[in-house]
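Supplementary notes for students who missed Thursday's class. We covered one full example, reproduced here. Read the sequence, then the structure, then the short commentary at the end.
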Amino acid sequence: MDRTEFARGRKTVTDGAAARTNRKSRGRGSAKRFRDLVESALEAKRLRGNEASSIETDRVRLRRVLPSIGHLKIRQLTSGRIERFLQELARGDALHDPVKGATVNRFHSLLSSIFRWAKRQGLIAVNPLAGGSIPRSKESPIIPRYLGRDEQRRLLRVIRQECPRKALEVELAVLTGGRRSELFNAKWEDWKVQEGILYVSGKTGPREVQVNRAARRCLIRLRKRAPREQIFITPERNESPRDARLWFEDAVKKADLRPAFRYHDLRHTYCSRLVAAGVPLLEVQKLAGHKSFQTTLRYSHLSPDQLKRSAEKVQF
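Structure (token representation):
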């Protein structure tokens, strides 16, 4: 038996075992369809403290998932069936463009999280995505997009012409490295002037953002022009929890920033400038609030001179 036949046989055995095991949990969950799991699983995430923005992203992805497998009964969702769905994402169709490996992996994680919840509730005995039963897709290396000095001048020139009150918000984003959701939801009471810290909460939970002198000047100017009763630092947040960024997207187009530049790339700009200034990567990780050091390593290519200087410190 060659390797391909062995792998195919192993897959069939795995699918069969998962289907048989999940049939055994028929009392409570056998009649349920995948779509019946979704809302309860998302609510469990919310109660565990997951950010509203993260759950909203799950909902957006589920709009692609449910038309394909939402109608299937739980016992029909074998590893093989789910893998075929993920392959369909990667392949694309008449209505959808092909999805990149990194995005396919986000769908993989979402589905696995829903099945983990179902397993904890006793609705299934086996998570069909657990234990590497469905390999993750290969992800292309992520090269951070950051703002060059000339690009910064062009972008700010447009913003000052089109929406001048937004210039300080962009400046604050670059000076603090705050995620958009963190800064958008930050309150004035979260800024501890004497400590030089802005307490925020976002994708990775609560954290402290260091406020340097330039960022402090930004915040002071924003505070002076804000009404006394304003709660949130970002003016629009006091009117609605919806974060509309059309003003930024329009400014990027008018400034002709290429390749495409997103609001999140202001955060990449912060990290890139720290590394280029010789700040050690472990400190960059702490300042940026990266949970994983692997995320911070994306910026390591920006510090070759720092590596050379460090190597010169070794003496014999």
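Commentary. The chain is about 55% helix and 5% strand. Residues 12-132 form a domain with the DNA polymerase; domain 1 fold (CATH 1.10.150.130). If anything here is unclear, bring it to office hours.
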